[in-house]
Amino acid sequence: MLFWDQHKTITCYYEALTRSVCNQYGLTQMEYDILMFLYNNPQYNTAADIVKVRKSTKSHVSTSLKLLEDKGFVEKKQSENNKKHIKVTLSASAQEIVQSGLNVQKEFAENMFRGLTEEEIAMCKSVFGKICNNAENGLKNK
């Protein structure tokens, strides 16, 4: 099961790369991750979406969203039809952070796939997608 232990190395490397952005803008890793998630996945724009898709805890997401709102990086808007549905969007002041984050994500991807052919990259993504689907199905069955 060494693979499952080694995957943490990838996460640790990503967090090491993002640390400079977090430090520059006074963000926690969770706050940074939420900003980038909202940018990269605009269709998932509620706290419940973030919890479900990212497999984060409700309390961490709630706390981080409140801090991001206080810092002016996200805006919350209540639905007129459903008072419980609150859409979260990035504010204009988050754009500089997002741009820095996109640069880090690009560097990360380039470094992770260095030396791999386009075919190997496609195969990697396909296999990883299947592994994630299997894990998702396993969670549903528990």
| Class computed from helices, strands and strand pairing | mainly alpha
Numbering strands along the chain, what is their spatial order in the largest sheet? 1-2
Order of helices and strands: HHHHEEHH
Largest sheet: 2 strands, antiparallel
Which segments are poorly predicted (pLDDT under 50) over 5 or more consecutive residues? none
SS element count, helices: 6
What is the arithmetic mean of pLDDT?
93
* Number of E-state strands: 2
- Report how far the terminal alpha carbons are from each other: 21 Å
Estimated share of beta-strand residues: 5-15%
Task: Calculate Rg over CA atoms.
Answer: 17 Å
Helical percent range? 55-70%
The coarse silhouette is globular
Structure description:
The chain is mainly α and 142 residues long. Helix content is 69%, strand content 7%. It has 6 helices and 2 strands; from the N terminus they run ααααββαα. Strands 1-2 form a two-stranded antiparallel ribbon. Helix 2 crosses helix 4 and helix 3 (47-54) packs across helix 4 (58-70). The model has no long low-confidence stretch (mean pLDDT 93).
Summary tags:
mainly alpha, 142 residues, 69% helix
Mind sketching the topology for me?
Elements lengths: L1 H24 L3 H12 L6 H8 L3 H13 L3 E5 L7 E5 L4 H18 L5 H23 L2
Antiparallel strand pairs: 1-2
Helix pairs in contact: 1-5, 2-4, 2-5, 3-4
In brief, what are we looking at here?
The chain is mainly alpha-helical. 69% of the residues lie in helices and 7% in strands. It is built from six helices and two strands, in the order ααααββαα.
